Each structure stands twice: as C-alpha cells, then as structure tokens.
## 1
Amino acid sequence: MTRTRPGGTLNRRHFLAAASAALLPTPALAQAGASDVDVVIIGGGAAGIAAARRVAEAKRSYVLLEAGPRLGGRARTESAFGLKVDLGAGGFAGGDGTLGASALAAGQPLVPLPSGRRLFAEGREVRESAYDAFTATLGAARRDMLAAIEGGKDVAAAQALASAPPPAKGTPGSDGPWAATVAQFLGPLSCGRTLAALSALDLARRDARPDDTTSPFGVGALMEALGAWVNVQRDAPVTLITNGGRFHSVSVRGQRTPIRARAVVLAVPAPVLAAGAIRFNPVLPTRLVTALRAIPAGYLEQVAFRLAGNPLGLQPNETVLVKANAGAPALLRGRVHGGELHVLTFSDAAARAIAEKGAEAALPLAQAWLRANFPGAETAVSEVVASRWGQDPLIRGALSPALPGQGAQRRIFTDTVQNRIFLAGDYVPETGWGTLAGAWVSGEAAAGRALRLFGDGPA
Ligand SMILES: Cc1cc2nc3c(=O)[nH]c(=O)nc-3n(C[C@H](O)[C@H](O)[C@H](O)COP(=O)(O)OP(=O)(O)OC[C@H]3O[C@@H](n4cnc5c(N)ncnc54)[C@H](O)[C@@H]3O)c2cc1C
C-alpha cells in the first residue's frame, strides 16, 4: 500500500510501479497531511535515490524532493531519432559499490560494456605496439602525478607531468608520441578541463574503476526504475533550508508550508550549491563554501547521431579514443546498444559551446571530428541530438574536479553540517568522485549517517 505526501498523487502509474516493486521493502512514508518527516532528501539523482531507498528500508518517514519532472539527474535516457540513448552517464562500474547489486536485486537487467577502448590514428586502428606505447605513457603519467603529490603537495596536473624527472633508461616516460593523447584523456575527456586547470592531488587520488556495465534500456531509465517506489515529489525545487533548532525547515517553491525534518540529505550537484541556488539560514560554514568553490564544474556534453551500416566497423557500445590532433578532443561511443546511434562526448570549450548553443554548435563539431578522424563519415551526419548539462540550472556542469592546489578540500564534504545536514553526490567521495557508482554509494552513506542520529544502524 502506498500513501503519498500532500501535493503528491497516487495515480495508476505510481500504483503499477509500486506493485512491480512488491519484493522491495515497503517504504516508510510521511503521514498524509503531516509536514514533519524524519529525513528530507533533496535531489533525485543517483545519490538522492540511493539515500531515499536506504531510509525507506530503515522504515523511517521521508520524502525525496526533486526540482525537475523526472528522477535520474545526470543519468538521463533520451529519445533520439526514435531510439533510446543516454546523454549523461551511459554506463558505470558494476563492481564498484552497491549500484550494480541494487539493480540486480530490483530485477533490472544489466549488460556488460566492452572492456578497454580502441585507439585510432589517422582514420585507422593503431598497431598493437601503439596500444602498448599508449598504455605505458598513461602509466607513467599516473606515476609522475603520484610522485608530484608526495607528502600532500598539490600542483596543477600539467605541472606534475612537465616537472617529472626524465625516466630511467629503457622505462617509458609521460612524454613521447602519446603524451598529448594521454593528457587529453586524463584531463578534458575524463574531467572536462585541461590538466593545467586540474589538481594533481585530486586526480592522482581518483580511483574510479572503468565503466563495465550498462542497462539495455538506458542508465537513466535504470535510475527511474530504482526510484519508482520511493516517496518522491517531482517539480519541487528547494529554495531555502532553515535551522529551526530541533528541526530543519525545508521550503519548496510554490508550497506554502515548509517541511520539517530531523535530518536532511542534500544531494544536489556541487555547482548548484556553490551558485547559491538554495539559501541557508544560517548560512553554510565558510570552509564548506570555500571547498565548494574549489571544485568548479568541468564540462562534458554528448552529441548523438545516426550512422547506418556500421561504416566505422565498431562492435556494439565500443569506445574509441583517437590520437590527439588539431581538432577538439572527443570520445566516441559507437553503435549504442548495437544500433545505428553513435555518441561523441566533447569537453571543456567545445562542451561549453554545445551547452550554450545546442545542436547549432554540436552539428559542426561532430562533423569536423568525423572529417578529421574518419574522413567521409561526416557526409552521413546532417542532424544531431545534444545534451546541455552546462546550461541546466539544476545541474550546471558535468562533474566537479578540484582546481590546482585545492585537492585536499574534498575531504570536507563528509562533515556533518549544522548537526543535521549530510552531503551526498558524485563530488563527495574522495577517490570515486565524478561517477554514478560513487554518487550512489555516497547517497547510501549519507542516509546511513542520518539514520544514526535516530540511533538506527552502527554508531
Ligand atoms: C555527459 C556526462 C557523461 C557522464 N558519463 C558517465 C559515465 O559514463 N559513467 C559514470 O559513472 N558517470 C558518468 N557521468 C557522471 C554521472 O552522471 C554523475 O556522477 C552522477 O549522475 C551524479 O549523480 P548525483 O546524484 O550526484 O547528481 P545528479 O545526478 O546531478 O542529481 C542531482 C539532482 O538534484 C536536483 N536538484 C538540483 N537543484 C535542486 C533543488 N533546488 N531542489 C531539488 N532538487 C534539485 C537535480 O534536478 C538533479 O536531479 C557523466 C556525466 C555527464 C554530464
């Protein structure tokens, strides 16, 4: 049986979703008509959904407030050319944390992604020896970065590589013919910013496992399915959080009465908090605001297009990295779910242009990338569908890497705020930041800490 909070509706879709989740724990919902709950969760992305499920399992009253019309946040499955495609997280590390296990336990199908990526240069796949050279350069770059941060020092990641001592004779170094490609891969293509604008400490500590799992229906659709039975208010943007002593009051735009909560899990993106889109009374501690400003958004945008007949000769869901050249760097995911859709992920300046102008900027960028790397293929692309995360006021970027010198700031995000606010989201984990699996784990962890306020769970 499902009851909803005031303002929520129990329609047929919700009922079916709840019924299909019959094997899942019955969520402990807020009393209809009441404005007090044990936990308010703000933000319906992976972190918020995971937190809500954890609180529901503990049979505490709660509500998940999502500003937009749907759940999933930066995991969003769109329709492009009549086909489903993820224009945010398109996969995740299945063995990293609990997301994969939660999906399987909920009866959601998962499929493996091809391991590794294919490397192309000048229109064709490189030889085996070039793969070895690339891998060695990548390994050397990681070693140089670790050496540069010894003793807790932090510099720009580019500086860490530039100032690395020359490698011992016979050992590969982080320079050489693949250095620029490695720099693009580690910087813009993974973090949305160049190595010159990234903290070596933050990057070296990042230990995100490669994505090896996806959903055949889309990762965004998977998120919606995992949130299907939670007690959620959509189109409910939180505007103000007030510390009222025994409770925190959470104000939602368009709702006259604030919701009072004994604990708050705050699962909105870091750039949204840094921009002051939610007001706090009293204001957030200065050191937290400083830390949020130390991890400004990196930009990634995705561009989907159709290529019939597999002209690039790719396996389903294969990722292609090309050798750095004069054009804008991008990572290609080919033949999404085995179909005709391909997705290019652009970063940094190109991503900002796409965020600002949409398809008007995305189409020429995609065509230029194809012309430079698979000459002739560009003639088949006359229409694209593009993400615009950087323009979305509820998201404001792709992920949140630290600025040079600021890598140590991330540890602040696990501190409890005003005794009752717990931060969750992909920017929170010190090592697994910037990933869907990391966001999921951080949501569960924040909910666990909130529940301990009530004496639930281990101290
Ligand atoms: C282009 C792109 C590609 C990516 N690819 C991958 C990938 O392949 N693998 C991977 O692991 N990760 C990937 N990521 C990263 C991954 O998508 C994120 O790390 C993850 O989705 C973040 O989840 P989250 O819950 O922390 O935040 P979000 O998913 O951003 O959720 C935050 C939610 O808060 C809501 N919100 C904002 N303001 C308010 C408010 N005032 N009141 C209420 N709600 C509010 C938002 O609407 C949103 O739904 C990618 C990201 C992008 C942008």
## 2
Amino acid sequence: MTNSLRVRLLWWLLVPLAIYVFVTGKAAYDNARHTADLVQENTLLASARMIAGEVEWSDGRLLVDIPPAALEVFASPQGDQVFYNVSVDDGRLLAGVPDFPARQAARHDSPIYYDADLHGKPIRAVGIVRQMYDNGAIRRVLVSVGKTQASRDAMLRELWRPQLVRQIEMVLLAVALACIGLTFELRPLLKVKEEVMDRDPMQLEPLRVERLHTELRPIVEAINQCIARLGLQVAAQRRFIADAAHQLRTPLTLLETQLQFARQHRDIEPTLSEALAAMQRSNRSMVGLTNKLLLLAQAEAADYTQLARQKVDLASIAQDVVEDLAMFAQKRDIDLGAELVESAWIIGHEALLSALVFNVAENAIRYTQPGGHVTVCVARDAQRVTLTVTDDGPGIPAEARSRVFEPFYRASSDTEGTGLGLAIAKEIVQAHRGEIALKHREPPKRGVIVTAAFFVDLM
Ligand SMILES: Nc1ncnc2c1ncn2[C@@H]1O[C@H](COP(=O)(O)OP(=O)(O)OP(=O)(O)O)[C@@H](O)[C@H]1O
Ligand SMILES: [Mg+2]
C-alpha cells in the first residue's frame, strides 16, 4: 500500500464506511422490497375479493360480472398489465384468460400469493376460493388475479434509492472533510519541514514544539535531542581541532627558533650539530603527534561492521607489544611481566588492537616510578577476552579520573606526552564493540588497573 498518510487514513475511513453503507443499504433494500410486495399483494387481494363478490347464481348457473373498480385499483403511470381468471371447480371458465396459471391454497379460506409466468411475462398473482351454495349444491369458484411488476419495481426504487443516495452523499462528505481536515492539520508538520530545510548547517538550536499537536511532539523532541547531541559533537570536534593545532604549534615554533639559531651559528661546528639534533627531536615529536592524530581518526572512523573482519589472537598481539616495550621498561627500571593465555581469538583489526595494548602498557611503564611493576594480562572465558594492564605506580588523581579518556587531556605535566593515548584506546575498544574501564587498586596497594573486554559471541 502507498505510504501517503492521507491515502492510508482515507482507507481506514473508507473501508469501514463502505461496509456500513453496504450493510445498511442491503437492510434498506430488503425493507423497501417487503413494503412494495405488501402493497402489491394487498391490491391484488382487494381486486380478487371484489371479483369474487360479483359471482352469483342465475338460473342454476354461475355467472360473474367483472366490476370496473376491480381493475382500476391497478391504475399506475407504469401501465402494468392485469390478468384474471374466474373458474368453477368443474373446470368451467366464467371470465378472464383461459391459460392463467391458477393456483389454489391448501385452505379454501386463505389467499395464496405466488410468482408465475404468463405470455412470457413474469407476474405476481393471488388466488382465492369462494364457495357458492345453491339447493344443497356447493361449488368452489377460484378467482385468480395477476399483474406485471412494473409499478411494484418503481415503488421499490422510490423507497430504496433515496436512502442509498443519502448514505453515499454522507460518505463523500466524510471523505471530503477528512481530506480538508488532514491538509489543515498537517500544516504544522510542513512548517517543521520548512524550518529544518531553511536552516543554516551550523544552526543547532532546537525546533519549536509549542504549537505542535501532542502526537507530533515526541517526534520533534527526538529530533531536538538528536540536534543537541550533534551540537555536543560539533563542539567536541571544534575543541579537538583547536587542541590539535595548539599541540602542533608548540614543536613548530620550537623548530622555527632552532632553525634561526642554526642559521646564525652555521659556521660553529659543535653548536650547529646540537641545533640539528634539537631540530630532529622537535620533528620527531611532531611526527609522533601526527601519527597519533591519524590513529585516532582511523579508530574513530572504524566501525565494527566495516572492520577488516579477521580473526586475531589478542594474546599474541600482547606478547609482541610486551617484547617491543621491554627495552623501554628496562630503561625505566620497571619489572614488565606478561600473563597470557595460550590463545585468545577475537574478530578485530590487528594494527588497532596492537596500538591499544601499546598505549595502555606504555602509560603504565611511563607513569610508574622506577623499581615498579607492570603486568600485562590476557584472559579468556566463555563470553569474553579481557586485556588487563596493572601497575603499582602513583595512580591518577581523583579529579582527573573521569577525564583521562578525553583527547589531549593530561593528568601530569612533568612528563612528555600528547594526551591522546587513552582517547585512542577508548575509540579502538568501542570500534570493536568492547568495554574499557579504569580502576584503582584497593589500598594499601597502589596503582591503576585498565581493563578492555571483547565479547566472543560477536564473532
Ligand atoms: N597507568 C597510569 N598511571 C598514572 N597515570 C596515568 C596512567 N595512565 C594514564 N595516566 C594519566 O592519564 C593521562 C592521559 O593518558 P594518555 O595516555 O591519554 O596521554 P599521555 O600518556 O599523557 O600522552 P600520549 O599517550 O599521547 O603520549 C596521562 O597524562 C597520565 O597523567
Ligand atoms: Mg599515554
């Protein structure tokens, strides 16, 4: 069926109304037919009685003189044909057409009504019996009167048609009113459409709901909630771009200063080498930042349905990362350990999962004091595969805990970093439809536990 609200509502209205018109029309037709039949039968009976009343004995014979009034009762503009037959039970015809299909009721004192065919025309007829006594003789005279149906049909039409026409008019009126009403009542919705269409792309104020129908309000309120979320998203993106630009500007400015310095001291050999080494460091930090920005963009854009859906073993990914970080841990005098199940297969993106383990484990190593312990653990149960990284470092200050997953947010300024590591980790876990959480170890123990859980049944 079509999707037009107007057409669908009209169907809802029209179908029941059509059934109603059909049922009441049928009842009206039956009533009208009953009335027309009754009138016709009464006239036929009156006529037959008048004729029967005129049958009399004359010189021992039965005679009848048809009174004109007996036929005049049938006068109508439709010019029906009337037939009659008066005959005695011995077969003698007293008057009328001889081939009249006469019938007799079972009881002689009650009339019989019936449909018949005479000279190829359908007729409605009545038959009555009059008993005639004379000198002990009883004769039964059968009087039959029949007529064609034109006036009866005309009466039926006159009784029935106006009712049907009135009902059809009522249905048409209802449909017209429904159409007009709908056009009128849909106007607020069209206004909302225009308001949305005319909007400038960055206009993110909510749509007005005051003048809307109660039924439409939830829809517009849902759109408004969506606009509000979009607004937050746009603001977050603006903040992100500003932060990224700010982060890049620092090493770029530094590089500019270092370049100037190098040009001024280009003939002084050791100073030039130092300046070049500093420039390389600035450049490395910019490359690092750019790589992280790219990784974040990649993790944000990755959707589970579009991920390169391959089976990967999180345990072996973690093993590789731990090996890569071993040198860094050694340099910082951290005891880096791994507790890995033999295999922990999930569906995912290998490079992104590797970046996840790296970012979380590198944080644990970097923020834990020398002599500390860091454990990377991959476990598996029936439902999920869990990565847990535990350290015994200083932990994260309470006020910073809720913000560490935000891009560019850093809880400590005494170390180097971009503040993107945990934001990237969170995006990667979300792209795999997993869950990431950060907990603190119960005192007297110290340190942070980061867990990332992946659901096996998504495979
Ligand atoms: N294991 C940890 N122990 C203590 N503090 C942590 C730990 N992990 C993260 N943090 C704090 O959370 C902040 C955010 O971490 P995140 O990894 O997002 O950024 P970063 O390490 O500062 O920079 P990047 O990882 O981009 O080089 C860090 O600045 C640090 O203060
Ligand atoms: Mg980090």
